Amino acid sequence: MWTRKAAFTFTGGIALILIGMMISNHQMMILGLAFIAFIVVNSWVSGHGDVEVQRTLSADNLYKGDDLYVELLVTNRSRRKTQQLEVYDNVPHEMKLRSGLNQMRLNLKPGESARIRYVLRCPLRGHYSVGPVSLRYRNTFNLSVDEMYVDHHSDIIIFPQIRDVEEAFIRSRTAKMYTGATTLRTPGPGTEFYSLREYVPGDPFKNINWKAFARTGELMINEKCRDAVTDLYIILDSRDIARIGTVLKNPLEMGTVAAASLASFFIQRRDSVSLTIYDEKLSFLPPDTGDKQYFKILSSLAGVAPRGTMPLQAVTNSLAARFSRGSPVFIISSCEGDGTVPSAVRDLVGRGHEVTVLSPSSIDFERLVSRIPRMSYEVLKIERQNRLTSLAGFGSQVIDWMPDMDLSQALLQVRGY
Amino acid sequence: MAGEVTPQGEGARSLHLRKLRVQWQIVTLQVLATLSLVWMYMEVVSTYVVGSIDHTQLFDTLESGLGTELPLGDWLTGGGNEGLARFYVPMGLGLGLGGAMALLAFQTPKFQQRVKLGFIIGLIAILAGRFVLGYAWQLVSDGWSAPGNNVLQLLEWPLLMMLSFIIMTFYLLPIITGTKGIWGLSRRGVAWSIGFTLLFLGVHAILTFPLIRSQLGSYGSQLTTLEIIVSEPTVFGLVTAQQFSLILIACLMMVFQESAFGVIRQLEYAYRLPESCKRDPEYVSQMDNLLNGHLRHTAIFLSLTVVATTIALGFHAVLLDWVNGITGSQWAAQVGESIELTLTYGLVISALLFLGIMALLRFIVPWQRFWGLIESSFTTRE
Asked: Structural domain of residue B57, as residue ranges?
């Protein structure tokens, strides 16, 4: 395709020839002819985008905020030069270039390769695709441009960040009925005796077995069987209302971080974790343990987007029967715009579940993006406090999670209203 | 696909402007642009200006009109020399001035401001310094009075000096702005240079149009017209020497423009690269490829443009020879003698016909494959 310069040169050439003919001026005619000859000569040779592209990523999945290293290998497989070729690797707009550049201007000889290396920062979770590779051939004198692309994609999943969660603050009231593949006979915090072992500096004195000490003369420690949580159910609110706030800080983002962190913590303890996400539809991941389940949970959380208005009651009504009796249930929701939350919590508590409501404070998120008058803010805050107090009144543990509060700090604040 | 990704490397060479500006390809392109600018200027001047409307003639006219010698010496203006020699010293001055302006453009803004301020103060001092001192002395010695004739005469020399410089600068504008554009990496400078040249050619073309020329009287008769119509083709048997000179002007203008703009374009690209890429050997090696390609294309394509234009201008004669050879009739000879053919229409139509055929050949002759074969035969595949 001709560029503006080529079009001007051609038009100028024709104009000069015509004017030259009108006023019988050879200089103008020759100048015009030279312009056109220049375009004709340049049209004989053009570049090409017949290149092989190979993209290597440093990882197929990453955690939010991590850096992704990308290497794009461009090889000219044809038997002639590419001429001036601009290679541009399309990256999702959510990702930011941290170092290097995702484009290069090159002129590859036959068989020659060039490597474009750059680093992307991934500030937002999600399922992304890097590519395709756009190519633009540009004539040396900028007279013609041809745009092509190589349909080469690399998929990547950005998981939510995993935060440290303090040692177990939650335990099942009911022993696990079917342990499945989970080995419960492992040492850890609990009540049942597991074995004796030698004292190691740092062990609490209350665990010293004094009888054994008297018998052997050496300090021995009582080790306990870890109390296993039966199954942990995480319910994440992904309704449209969860988008309140900024792109990086909103109830949904904090919720995904909390869900991922809790799942990580409990799966590392070899417990079974289930994830339910409700937005315009319900997505239920049955409880399971192990790395595979962990990956499934993180993948699900990576793809969560705010939409829909499904009430929590609908979720609990359809899933309560599938919840193991007495299992802890974690509800991560701002509890805004859903009048069925109290009744849903009441039902779950009534069924014997230990319910913990982790509620990101949507009013405070809204304050990050819009100015709320002080009086209105106070009123809304009181309304929210009342709502959470009523949830606590049904027997659940309620955590009011402020935007600037760390997850572990919030979880330690479990308090009865 | 996940795998081992090595971070960007660092080589001994980099694409920092300081280093890139002294790279041989860049310097070659700039020298090429300067040479073509000077050559083009000399061609234009020798074709249209020298002996017709050159600056020494204007100075002579001024001197005779004013009845006084202009302050600039003949050694500086080229007065007293013959032909193109009149322009050698002024051209050197123009190149020097353009180079100095380019050099100034790379200094700090503070330094630039000081130089400009110094220039203005110097100009004022030259223009009015002696006059102010003379007038002040007159006021002291004679009391309050208007400046006398002897004091006013002190203004004559600086004003004539300024006028001479302005005239010289006007004649040398393409050289000054062009040099500043090439070495100062200024697109505007290059564009002004080409613009001035085209403007001059345009104005000259209008003034030499017979109807207008006759209205100009004796001034019009001084203008050089190109008597190239009836001359015998001497260059490759296709075009006359004067026609070839005109072709050269057009092609040198393109060489100058493309080389100067090419340098600016590639340096702009290098400047915009992030720091890590400037040090990356991959980018450095590709920049070498780009610059080598640019140099090669400038040499090949613009030479071909000269050849194509030359053949195009002589194509009507070739066509007639063919027709004559094929048919053996007298028609071709009769047409060949037609003034209309050699003058404009036939010449232009046949030239465009030739260029049209050449453009269409692209779709018939596999240029791309042919070119690729040549290219790949010179390079080794990995």
From this structure: 52-223
B122: in domain: yes
| A94/B246 Cα distance (integer angstroms) | 56
**Contact at CB, B247 and A34, closer than 8 angstroms:** yes
DSSP-derived secondary structure letter, A341? H
Chain B residues close to A53, C-beta within 8 Å: none
Q: Give the residue from A393, A272, A410 showing the smallest Cα distance to A342.
A: A393
| DSSP state letter for A127 | E
Inside any domain, residue B361 = no
Kindly state the tokens that stand for A274.
């289930």
Question: For residue A410, what are its two tokens?
Answer: 């919030």
B164: its two tokens: 């001479």
Can you name the residues that pair with B55 across neighbouring β-strands?
none
Assigned token pair, B65: 């009109």
- Tokens at residue A224, please? 């306990």
Interface of B with A in 178-217 (CB under 8 A): 201-202, 204-206, 208-210
Number of domains comprising chain B: 1
**Phi and psi angles of residue A7, each rounded to the nearest 5 degrees, phi first:** -60, -45
Q: Which residue of B has its CA nearest to A45?
A: B368
* Residue partners of B264: CB distance under 8 A and separation at least 6: B185, B186, B187, B190
Highest mean pLDDT among A322-326, A371-375, B85-89: B85-89
* Angle (nearest 5°) at CA A93 between A88 and A95: 95
Say if B234 falls within a structural domain: no
Residue B188 in domain: yes
Q: Which of A320-329, A353-362, A381-390, B87-96 has the lowest mean pLDDT?
A: A320-329
Mutant choice from B214, B301, B340 vs A, greatest count of A C-beta within 10 A:
B301
Whole-angstrom distance, CA of residue B150 vs CA of residue B156: 10
> A195 phi and psi, to 5 degrees?
-170, 175
Helix (H, G, I), strand (E, B) or coil at B79: coil
Q: What's the pLDDT score for residue A179? A: 40
Q: What are the strands of the beta sheet with A354-360, ordered from one edge?
A: A282-288, A272-278, A231-237, A328-332, A354-360, A397-401
pLDDT score of A62 more than 80: yes
Query: What one-letter code names the amino acid at B11?
Result: G
- C-alpha A84/C-alpha A49 separation (Å) is 10
Q: What DSSP character marks residue A265? A: H
Strand A145-150 to A133-138 pairing = antiparallel
pTM: 0.80
Contact B305 A112 (CB under 8 A): no
Is residue B221 classed exposed, middle or buried when 0-12, 13-18 and 19+ CB atoms within 10 A define those classes? exposed
The values of phi and psi at residue A240, to 5°, are: -60, -30
Predicted confidence band of residue A8 (pLDDT cuts 50, 70, 90): very high
Cα–Cα dist A262/A356, whole Å: 12
Mutation site for B-interface testing, chosen from A19, A25, A27 by largest number of B Cβ within 10 Å: A27
- On whether any CB of chain A is under 8 Å from the CB of B381, the answer is yes
Per-residue pLDDT, averaged over A386-415, amounts to 85
The C-alpha atoms of residue A254 and residue A417 are separated, in whole angstroms, by 23
Residues B34/B182, Cβ–Cβ less than 8 Å: yes
Other CB atoms closer than 10 Å to residue B108's CB: what's the count? 8
Closest by CA position to A87, among listed A115, A71, A106: A106
B304 in contact with A at a CB cutoff of 8 Å? Answer: yes
Q: Three-class SS of residue A18?
A: helix
